[in-house]
């Protein structure tokens, strides 16, 4: 499947979710209760107890791809911490609540958690909970993370990309979005920006403006450095025009490998990342970029190819 076809489906769901997140069905009190439930869940993961678990989970839970009863989920958490007594996790990003279709009222909570079996070896994870409003209050009906989902799915998950972005160690990259003024959920009346995360906590997130989410794709062998690159496709509320970015990791930081360039989904619907950015076989260290541009003479969108030098920090 071409990248943009898969991306349209993923981003269509994301865009619908963002629109629903500000609908009237979810009240401010619901939002406070849902955020409080996520905070209690984080405490439970560090110190699981049967009493706390009963107040967290619904009777049936989709737990990292397996449908389990609440009691089994509580037992699994307790057994995990007993086996790994130094395990600890904390939430290190905003919590985005996206209202889901249907009844009863349910929201998807997405955020970044930092977790590790030992204090000196934490990793970042894109976590996801589904919270359902029940008679007894809000309860967790699904718990997972995108890395686990990507590893068990047979189809490509464009929310996440894995690679050796620093040239040596395998890591994962993904986007989160928030309103920089309110620090809350994005809506069409305000601003929105994304953060490009890495599963390595030493790599601080990079900020991408005018972004409500998007896809990430790994491009390999663009040069002889050994570094994979993360091709970022930010999404916005409207327009087929997109600013596209290419990043890698150097000196323990995200680096924009080339200047951002434009693509247009109306004329580049069937392309993939390797068609947008390709190694220049004649000039080591350079890539050929296929950029969509508006041509005044023909009054049409044209694809122009140009060479760009991959940035190397000294």
Account of the 3D structure:
It is a single chain. The chain is an alpha+beta fold. It has a domain at 1-145: Nuclear Transport Factor 2, Chain: A. The chain has six helices and 19 strands. It has helices spanning 3-20, 28-46, 50-54, 70-83, 146-152, 273-276, and strands at 57-63, 66-69, 88-91, 96-99, 106-116, 123-134, 137-145, 160-163, 171-178, 193-198, 206-209, 214-219, 229-234, 241-250, 253-256, 261-264, 277-279, 286-295, 300-309. The strands form four sheets. Strands 1, 2, 3, 4, 5, 6 and 7 form a seven-stranded mixed β-sheet that branches. β8 (160-163) and β9 form a beta hairpin. The chain is globular, with a radius of gyration of 21 Å. This is DUF4440 domain-containing protein. Residues 1-24 form the signal peptide.
